Amino acid sequence: MTKEKVELYRYTHRIEEEKVQAFKEAIYLNDSNSEIPATYATVIDFQGGMSFEKLTDLLTFDPSCVLHGSQQYEYRKPIYIGDNIEAVVFLIGKTTKKGMTFAKLETEYNRDGETVLVSRSTVIEQKGVTHV
Amino acid sequence: MFNPIHMTITREQIKKYAVASGDFNPIHTDPEAAKKAGLPECIAHGMLIMALGSRTLNEWGVSSLASYDARFLAMTYPDEPLVFRGEWIDEKLGKGKLTVENEAGEVKMKGTFIAG
């Protein structure tokens, strides 16, 4: 079991209008707000460098049976189209029980050196999954 | 108590969300990969349910958030009718909860939020 907070990966991502629009369309959100939607950090992750393959590689998880157990966001400052965000991902803990491995991740999203958003998530590797 | 909102997620919407988010975990879009993982078919992204939950919060008038947490408790399948229910835990503090379940009452997601 890993207990200490270990930096896993960092990447930068620029918030682009057309990607924000595509995300809004995918969730049928109609607004002209320049602030990103509440769960848009998932785009910063997957398109900024922490792709699904990268994530499973870093966690040494079998990519064929990975589930998302929980997600938390702490919003400190609004993030807008045009912002450049640096994301720093930490592995907080990794535990295996009953054939399931739970990885706890914390990601800090920084703009100009200031943390504007914090994400905490649990990702699960479960062989032959039948339920979450 | 907020007005419950009914929604159904289609396969097309799951694909659209995969492209928009960049989350290409194959259990969401590839039926063979889903079967290999022991699932009867592709499942919706937990993050899609959470994103739709945030849209629901907007519709309930909660437009700005200080925090938003979700636990994904059961698989959500395409074309499964869902109901999003929410209520204040403490309106003065802006603290509320949100639950997503199917028509049979199976809870898919339990969330809490603090308006801010």
From TrEMBL, chain A:
InterPro entries in the record: FAS1-like_DH_region (IPR039569), HotDog_dom_sf (IPR029069)
Pfam family, one: FAS1_DH_region
Location of the FAS1-like dehydratase domain: 36-116
Coiled coil: none
The protein's name: FAS1-like dehydratase domain-containing protein
Automatic annotation (TrEMBL), chain B:
GO annotation, cellular component aspect: fatty acid synthase complex
Pfam families xrefs: MaoC_dehydratas (PF01575)
Cited InterPro entries: Fatty_acid_synthase (IPR003965), HotDog_dom_sf (IPR029069), MaoC-like_dom (IPR002539)
GO biological process, one term: fatty acid biosynthetic process
Location of the MaoC-like domain: 6-101
GO MF term list: fatty acid synthase activity
Designated name of the protein: MaoC-like domain-containing protein
UniProt organism field: Domibacillus mangrovi
Organism taxonomic ancestry: Bacteria, Bacillati, Bacillota, Bacilli, Bacillales
